[in-house]
Amino acid sequence: MGRFAALLGLWLLLVLYYEAAPHLWAASVWWDVAWLGFVVIPAVFGLVLLALPLREAQGLLPVGLAFAVLAAVLTYADVDVFANFARLTACTLLGWWFLSYFETISWVVLVAAIIPWVDAYSVWRGPTKQIVEHHANVFGVLSFAFPVPGEHAAANLGVPDLLFFALFLAAAARFGLRIYWTWVTLVAALGLTIAATVWWNLSGLPALPGIAIGFLLPNADLLWARLRRPAGAAAEPGA
Asked: Does the pLDDT value for residue 124 go beyond 70?
């Protein structure tokens, strides 16, 4: 009950912030970056961390799809704040369902090695670039917003980024890796991605490279030991 109460309380605080954000203080760009990186992004993904025990629940796929439909309906109805969190819930549940098909940690490592290159190509030359530059309204529907205080503006993270954040965090739990350090580095990677985007004055940067590093970096020694272990050998839990 304590974990559920914390999850509900944090969600309510975030909803209040999202509703009030345009009317809050206005600060410099770098204060906004710091606010998003150290407060808003950790709070949002704190929801995923608190909900992590649900990763083994039954019915993740249908419930995740139901939240995706709910997000679409709420978006159509211009209920943007609740659509935003329905999108996060859908991606989280679908990411956890997707992880159920990974039989070993080596599969997760392989995905972490591949997806940054796919995401980088998509952002710089592929479909994501076309959507961001020519169909901004579509990107708004297919992304999660982190509102900037005092403005009608937000930093956005694509739905694949949400899905893989949830997948890698759940993989850390399932395969006995460092759950909390993984969460910290995943969140830090997203904050650094936003900071780099502002520093280089870009319209956007791929987030999946940072997310992949955020999973691999705090678990590198454990992953190396698991990958070197002969097939069938017993695994030891991570620290």
From this structure: no
Detail the DSSP E strand segments found in the chain. 143-147, 154-158
> What would the mean pLDDT of 148-158 be, rounded to a whole number?
91
Q: Which residues contact 86 (CB under 8 A, 6 or more apart)?
A: 67, 68, 70, 71, 74
Task: Examine residue 29 and state whether it is found in any structural domain, yes or no.
Answer: yes
Residues whose CB falls within 8 Å of the CB of residue 55, separated by 6 or more in sequence, listed in order: 96, 99, 170, 173, 174
74 lies in some domain: no
For the chain, the domain total comes to: 1
Digit-coded pLDDT (tens) for 202-212: 777 788 999 99
Buried b (16+ CB within 10 A) or exposed e, 117-140: eebbebbeeeebeebbeeeeeebb
